[in-house]
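Hello forum,

I keep getting stuck at the same step: I have a sequence, I want structure tokens, and every attempt I make locally crashes halfway through. Rather than fight my setup again tonight, could one of you with a working pipeline run this one for me? It's a single chain of 151 residues.
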Amino acid sequence: MGRGLIMQLFNTLLVIHVLSVVWWIGGVFTVTTSLLPIFNRLPPPERIERIKVFEHRFANQARVAVLLAGITGFWMYTLVPGVIAHTWWIGLMLLVWVLFAILLFVAEPLRLPAKLGLIHSPHKFLLLHAVLLVLALAAIAGGVIGARGGW
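Reply #2:
Ran it on my machine without issues. Output:
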């Protein structure tokens, strides 16, 4: 495959990757900063029911976005030179992706947050989301700056 075709492929993958990350982390941002604080003001049974209803609607969207981000990210990884591929921000992106993939494809289907009591503890549940959001935003910032030659 010629260099021009590789760049076209890379650019197409990058567009899909960025749109997937916007969809996925934008949802996490909305949940963490808007919905959970509102839900946390509700009585426990209503709060838990609202979280379950929202999760049911958003979880499949998040799974699709995470899969697309993972597929395109790994594919782009195979196309970039080793000096770029082995940077701290690529490692952080991978860590964030793995954490969310485990949550969405393992923990949620097994109802681990409920079984561990996280969903019943509004502050712990919000803190978990906040930590994941901060990691995701750090990965995005590192990726944007790193891809432009910074750091």
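The two ends are 31 Å apart (CA to CA). If your local run keeps crashing, start a new thread with the error log.
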